[in-house]
UniProtKB/TrEMBL annotation:
Catalysed conversion reaction: a 2,3-saturated acyl-[ACP] + NADP(+) = a (2E)-enoyl-[ACP] + NADPH + H(+)
Domain J: residue ranges: 13-74
Transmembrane segments: none
Organism: Micractinium conductrix
Name by which UniProt lists this protein: enoyl-[acyl-carrier-protein] reductase
Family as reported in the entry's similarity comment: Belongs to the zinc-containing alcohol dehydrogenase family. Quinone oxidoreductase subfamily.
SMART domains: DnaJ, PKS_ER
SUPFAM superfamilies to which the protein is assigned, alphabetical: Chaperone J-domain, GroES-like, NAD(P)-binding Rossmann-fold domains
Length: 507
C-alpha cells in the first residue's frame, strides 16, 4: 500500500490514483479528490504515500495545461514553482504528514530508556562524556587547522607578485555618522599574495543595515570587532583575479561571495583568504542578485526552519519593504502562505501597499496601534503562526500580540535600535515562543547544504519568480549619494555599490 498505480509504460497512472479513467470530466476529478482526501488523510489513519499520490494526481489533472500534456505525452510538467514546493522543507511541505518523524521523545520515554542496561554500559557513558564536552570533544585537527593557527614559513614558498595598482577603498576612520566618517581613498595593493590568499575584483557590494551599524559603532558586528581605520562592507560578489600559493579550491575567473563578516567589500580590489570565501557557479544568477545572496538565504531559512508551516498558514513580518521582507513575501506566495506585511509610517503607503500585495502580501498594515485589532477588523481571523521581526522594540511587541496561541516570533534584526519587549501575558497566556536567527551562523554550520539551496534559489531568480529590487551607484564616485539614499527608510530598494573602475596604476 502506498505506491501509486502505474501504466504499462511504467509511469504513474494519475487517473487510477483517483479511481477514474481517462476522459473523466473536471467535475468527476474534483469530486473524486474530495471523496478520497476525506477518507485517506493520515490524520484519519490513512497511508501518507497514498495520500501524497492522490494530491499529486489532483494537482496535475485539475490544471488544464498540465492535464493536456499528461494526456498527450504521459509525462507530468513540473514548473519551477512545483520544484521549489517539492524541495522546500526537505519535500515535506506539501503536506505535514510525517509527524512521527518529527515528534520528540517525551520525558517518560526518556526515563525508561535511561533505565535499560544498554544505556548504562561503558560505551554509552563514554559517549555521554564526549557529548558533555561539546564541539571540542569531537574536533579533528587537519593540516589546514595547523596552518590557520601557526601559519606557513615564508621561506618555504614564493609569493605571487601583484600589479602596482592603487585601488578605490572606502575606509572608516572612526565611529560616527557614515557620511561623515567614511572616505574613498586610493590604496596600493600588497606586493604579493601570501599562502592561501587570492586577489579579488569586487563587482557589487550592497549597503546593508549591518554595514551602517558597524560604521556607526566604530567596528562592532555581533561579538566581533574591527579596529578603526577599517574597510567597510561585509557582503558582495567578486571575481578571482589571481591565486596565491597553497590555494587549492579556487582559480582565476571563479565567482565568490564572503562566508563571514568583516571582509571589507567596499573597495574595487581586495586580498582575501581562500577559507573566507564561498565559490559559486559563474552562471548561478545575475551578479546583482548574487550580491544579495545573504538576504535570499535569510528569507528562505526564516520560513523553512520556523513555525512548522503548511499551505494556508499565516505569517506576519515587519520591515516588509526591506530586501528580506520582499523576498519573504514572494516565497510566501509560491508556498501559498498568507503573508501580512507590516511597514512603518510610509510617506506613500497606498502605493507601497499595492506593490507589496503584488509581491504576495495578503494584507499590508501600518506598524502602529494594535495589529491584532486591525486584523480582526479586516476579518482576518486566521491568526499568524509565525512572526518575523527585523525592527525590535515596540514593533516586535505588536507582532507578538498578533500571533496565535503558541505562535513563534523570530528576531533576525533590530533596525529600530531597541531590543524587543514582551508582556508577561504574551509569555503566559499566549504561550509565545521567541527565537533568534542569524543567517551567517546558519551558513557556518551548514556549508554542505549550501550548493543545493543556492541552486533552488537560483532557479526561482532565473525564472523571474524571485527578485530583490536594487539601485546601483558607482563605488568611487557616487558613495555620498548612495549613503544618502540608503538612509531613506522608505526607499523600497537595496543600494548596491558597483565597481567599473578598479583604480590607477603607478610605477
Amino acid at each position: 500500500m502506498g505506491a501509486p498505480p502505474m501504466t504499462d509504460e511504467g509511469v504513474p497512472d494519475l487517473y487510477a490514483a483517483l479511481g477514474l479513467v481517462r476522459g473523466a470530466s473536471d467535475t468527476d476529478i474534483r469530486r473524486a479528490y474530495r471523496n478520497l482526501v476525506s477518507k485517506i488523510h493520515p490524520d484519519k489513519g490513512g497511508d501518507a504515500d497514498t495520500f501524497r499520490a492522490v494530491q499529486q494526481a489532483y494537482e496535475v489533472l485539475s490544471d488544464a495545461t498540465k492535464r493536456h500534456e499528461y494526456d498527450t505525452t504521459g509525462t507530468v510538467v513540473r514548473s519551477v514553482e512545483d520544484e521549489f514546493m517539492d524541495s522546500f522543507a526537505g519535500g515535506s511541505f506539501r503536506d505535514r504528514v510525517r509527524r512521527g518523524e518529527m515528534e520528540k521523545v517525551n520525558l517518560s520515554d526518556q526515563i525508561s530508556v535511561r533505565q535499560e542496561k544498554k544505556a548504562q554500559s561503558h560505551s554509552s557513558g563514554f559517549e555521554a562524556w564526549m557529548r558533555s564536552r561539546g564541539n571540542a570533544g569531537v574536533k579533528v585537527y587537519t593540516s589546514e587547522d595547523v596552518i590557520d593557527q601557526f601559519g606557513v614559513v615564508k621561506d618555504s614558498y614564493d609569493a605571487v607578485p601583484l600589479p602596482k595598482i592603487r585601488a578605490h577603498t572606502v575606509r572608516c576612520k572612526r565611529s560616527g555618522v557614515p557620511s561623515e566618517v567614511l572616505a574613498v581613498e586610493a590604496e596600493a595593493l600588497p606586493q604579493g599574495l601570501e599562502w592561501g590568499e587570492v586577489l579579488l575584483s569586487i563587482r557589487y557590494a550592497p549597503v546593508n543595515p549591518a554595514d551602517l551599524y558597524t560604521v556607526q559603532t566604530g567596528g562592532t558586528y555581533g561579538e566581533s570587532r574591527l579596529e578603526p581605520p577599517f574597510v567597510a562592507g561585509h557582503d558582495g560578489v567578486a571575481v578571482v583575479v589571481k591565486v596565491g600559493p597553497g590555494v587549492k579550491g579556487l582559480a582565476e575567473n571563479d565567482w565568490v561571495v564572503p562566508l563571514g563578516p568583516g571582509l571589507g567589500t567596499w573597495r574595487s580590489l581586495a586580498v582575501a583568504k581562500e577559507k573566507d570565501l564561498l565559490k559559486i557557479p559563474t552562471d548561478l544568477m545575475p551578479p546583482e542578485q548574487c550580491a544579495m545572496l545573504r538576504e535570499m538565504l535569510a528569507a528562505y531559512r526564516l520560513l523553512e526552519d520556523h513555525g512548522n508551516l503548511k499551505p494556508g498558514d499565516a505569517v506576519i513580518l515587519n520591515a516588509a519593504n526591506s530586501t528580506v521582507g520582499q523576498l519573504v513575501l514572494q516565497l510566501c506566495s509560491l508556498l501559498r502562505l498568507r503573508a501580512i506585511a507590516v511597514i512603518s509610517g510610509h510617506k506613500d503607503f497606498e502605493r507601497t501597499s499595492e506593490w507589496l500585495k503584488g509581491l504576495g502580501a495578503a494584507e499590508v498594515l501600518q506598524d502602529s496601534g494594535s495589529l491584532k485589532f486591525e486584523l480582526e477588523s479586516l476579518k482576518f481571523f486566521a491568526k499568524p503562526k509565525l512572526a518575523l521581526d527585523a525592527v525590535g522594540g515596540a514593533s516586535a511587541t505588536r507582532l507578538a500580540d498578533a500571533l496565535g496561541e503558541g505562535g513563534q516570533l523570530v528576531v533576525y534584526g533590530a533596525m529600530g535600535g531597541r531590543a524587543p519587549h514582551f508582556t508577561w501575558q504574551q509569555w503566559v497566556f499566549q504561550g509565545v515562543q521567541v527565537k533568534g536567527f542569524n543567517v551567517r551562523r546558519w551558513v557556518r554550520d551548514n556549508k554542505k547544504k549550501l550548493p543545493a539551496l543556492l541552486e533552488s534559489m537560483a532557479k526561482l531568480v532565473n525564472a523571474g519568480k524571485l527578485r530583490a529590487e536594487f539601485t546601483e551607484y558607482e563605488l568611487h564616485s557616487e558613495l555620498g549619494e548612495a549613503l544618502e539614499h540608503a538612509s531613506d527608510r522608505g526607499r523600497n530598494t537595496k543600494i548596491l555599490l558597483k565597481v567599473t573602475d578598479v583604480g590607477e596604476q603607478y610605477e
